[in-house]
Amino acid sequence: MLPLVRAEDVVLEINLGAIQANFRTVSTLVGPRVRVAAVIKSDAYGLGIVDIARALIDAGCDLLLVANLDEGLLLRSSFIGVEIAVFHDQLDKFGRWYRAHRLIPVVNNCRELDAISTEGNRQMYFLNVETGFSRFGLGIDDVRSQCVLRTFERHRPSVVLSHLACSECAWDGTNILQRDRFRAICDLLRPTRGSLAASAGVWLGKPYHFDMVRVGSALYGINTAGAQPNPLQPVTKLRARILDVCNVPPGEAVGYGATFRTARASRVAVAGIGYKHGLPWSCANKLSVRFAGYSAPVIGRISMEYITIDITDLPKALCGPGAFVELLDEDFTVGDLAAAAGVSPQEVLTRLGAGCTRQYLNSSSPFRASLAHRGEADGIGAPR
Ligand SMILES: *Cc1c(COP(=O)(O)O)cnc(C)c1O
After folding, report:
1. Region 245-269: what's the mean pLDDT?
2. Per the CB 3.0–4.6 Å rule, which of 5, 87, 115, 283 could disulfide with 92?
3. 60 φ, ψ to 5°?
4. Residues near 209 by Cβ (< 8 Å), separated by ≥ 6?
């Protein structure tokens, strides 16, 4: 029979204290007059929506943004007081649900605006406007015609928002174009508050902050703006257990497609992490892992459940079955892994979060803290 408490093979460690520190860093950057809304859609970028929400609320966040009603309802069942806004979910059909659970809808088109502006409805809502992203939002002509129809006078949005396409490149002219279009719309809707910037937009400076910024990536330690020196703390560590070690003669193929061939008699460790857990297939032969300060290259393809690592140069005692290899740490972050794999860091994070066992560090909840502690105690070489 399997032991009741079985140590995990793949652990994504999530430092809640680092997420809180990143929230404070962004708050300091934008200053006290700009509200910082936390984007925790997609299960908080894979890190666990309820745990991350709790940490952010503890850090002083009072507005959470989610993708859909399911996420909104889940959050509302855990948190009574905080404001929650839903980016997009059939407002014209489910208006009742928004009202009953005090979820703030984002209005994305005229159909939804009609639905929410029915006689007597005083429900708070945000208005999304289109300035150059072509993904939801009323265009400036729609806004003008609704102004003529006096819809906004009757029922004013509390925030008008738009999304930047190129904020990761500070020098891209699209930023200025979108900001000017956004300003023109804000002028029409005064005194409604404005929100244009997501994480990278924070680094574009004051003219992009308006009244509120909406940050996701920055909270999770992803430096989308490439800010140097990087003021954001890394949030995640990733480790996987070595399942087996084998001796491979020179000239042998390692893994699918024989993309790697040993040049010498080698020791190869097999670790229990693969693309099923969210490790990008495209990082094959481009990645190293760490063992207690040593580094060793991942060789051959990433398979569904496993990777293979050349440990020939490492001390034998360090990397036997049961030991853990580190794939992400302070020095090699999600951003570095994404760059090696040629994919976006947000994609890597959401997939790893969904595929690995998550453990939380620096949690205020004693239950979580003890779980995290158990993970630590398991450490290197723990028996299964
Ligand atoms: C996802 C999202 C954000 C957050 O973007 P980050 O770059 O991760 O900070 C902000 N606004 C909207 C509309 C989004 O969809």
Report:
1. 97
2. 115
3. 110, 5
4. 30, 31, 34, 196, 197, 201, 202
What is the reported pTM? Answer: 0.92
Say if ligand 1 is within 6 A of residue 54 CB.
no
Q: Which of 185, 88, 168 is nearest to 136 (CA)?
A: 88
Cα 2 to averaged position of ligand 1 atoms, centre (Å): 43
pLDDT at 148: 84
Number of residues assigned to the chain: 384
Q: Is the pLDDT of residue 244 over 80?
A: yes
Question: Rounded CA gap, 352 and 345, in Å?
Answer: 10
Separation of CA 295 and ligand 1 centre (Å): 35
3-state secondary structure of 55: helix
Are 159 and 34 contacting, i.e. CB atoms less than 8 angstroms apart?
no
Q: How far apart are CA 213 and CA 190, in angstroms?
A: 18
Report the separation in Å between the CA atom of 244 and the middle of ligand 1, taken as the mean of its atom positions: 41
- Report pLDDT for 6: 66
Say yes or no: CB of residue 163 within 6 Å of ligand 1. yes
Does residue 167 have its Cβ closer than 6 Å to ligand 1? no
Tokens coding 68: 């859909």
Q: Is the CB of 217 under 6 A from ligand 1?
A: yes
Q: CA 187 from chain center: how many Å?
A: 32
The residues pairing with 159 across neighbouring beta strands, listed in sequence order, are 126, 193
Q: Per-residue pLDDT for 375 more than 50?
A: no
Which ligand 1 atom is at minimum distance from the Cα of 220? 8
What distance in angstroms lies between residue 272's CA and the mean position of ligand 1's atoms?
33
The letter for the amino acid at 157 is P
Which residue, judged by its Cα, is nearest atom 13 of ligand 1? 163
Least confident of 23-27, 56-60, 148-152, 188-192: 148-152
Nearest residue by C-alpha to atom 12 in ligand 1: 163
Structure tokens that stand for 65 in this block: 């943004």
Span of 64-73, 78-87, 90-99 with lowest mean pLDDT: 90-99
Q: Which residues are catalytic?
A: 41, 256
- Domains by residue range for the chain, with CATH: 7-11+234-370 (2.40.37.10), 33-219 (3.20.20.10)
Confirm or reject: Cβ of 287 under 6 Å from ligand 1. no
Question: The dihedral of CA 119, 112, 63, 131: what is its sign?
Answer: negative
pLDDT greater than 50 at residue 248: yes
**CA 234 – ligand 1 centroid, Å:** 19
